[in-house]
Amino acid sequence: MVQISRRSFMAGAAGSLLVPAALAQQDRYPSRPLQLTHGFGAGGNADVVSRLFAQKMQDVLRQPVVVDIKSGAGGAIASDYVAKSKPDGYNVVMLTGAHTVSAAIRKSLPFDAVKDFSFISTVTSFPFVIAVRSEHPARSLQDLLALAGKKPDGVTFTSVGVGSTQHMVGEMLGVAAGVKLLHVPYRGGGAPVQAVIAGDVDVLADTLTVASPHIKSGRLRALAITSAQPWPSMPEIAPASAVLKGFEIRSWLGLAAAAGTPADIVELLGKAARTAAEDPGLKATLFTLGSEAAPSSPAQMGDMVRREIERWRAVVAKAGLQPQ
Description:
- The protein is 44% helix and 19% strand.
- By secondary structure, it is of the alpha/beta class.
- The longest helix has 22 residues, at 6-27.
């Protein structure tokens, strides 16, 4: 008969208790850093807001939240990456309004814009600014539209890519005014604004996050804001609706994970996002960037995404744009 000493028995028993404890620790979410991916260039609105929320969310999650850029295709590369990732909550994407525009304007996407995502929460809402370089002959929105009316496709506008919300702002502006503007897309980040300042393109249609420093420095002249009323952080910019009745465009940023992410993980991520959005310091920073905090529930975000896809499909049809 094999003899087992009392010391060996107790050590074995203690070890057997440690194994489940170690597994429990390993299974607890989150037990390692999270990756927050977005699909636009460094320094753009999506990048700046992603970094602000990542910093605040990690205080709630007690794990680092690392921002990763996978730019291109109007954000679709980043969305596809997260849609195909393991649905364990460690890969999250910062979606933009382009997510719904792409679903409306592209013939096909490598993912379903609704079914392949677990929506977490919207985080911000914001308008766009329509601006030209300081030396441009257009002194007002009326001047710009008059120039475009005389020269179809002679007035150019930038965006951060085909299928971006900035692209749709330019198209909607042309449709509302009955003029034809020529779209000149860039990859993202600071490239569009630099192209306008350099005189390579006429019109910037972008966020205040990107445009306001150049407006304040005098390198850009703001012609209009796309909110229905003057925007609180730059009330001196007249709304486009003063010239084009009923013209209003506001966009959004929001967080999502892969479809199938457990509900309790989505709930925790949503709590972290909403806690960040309620932080007074972050709210103040967003105000200076021309945005406002706009948290939501997963269901509210999902409903909004569906509505926005239908809205942009109607815009694409009215503008006579061909699916890309």
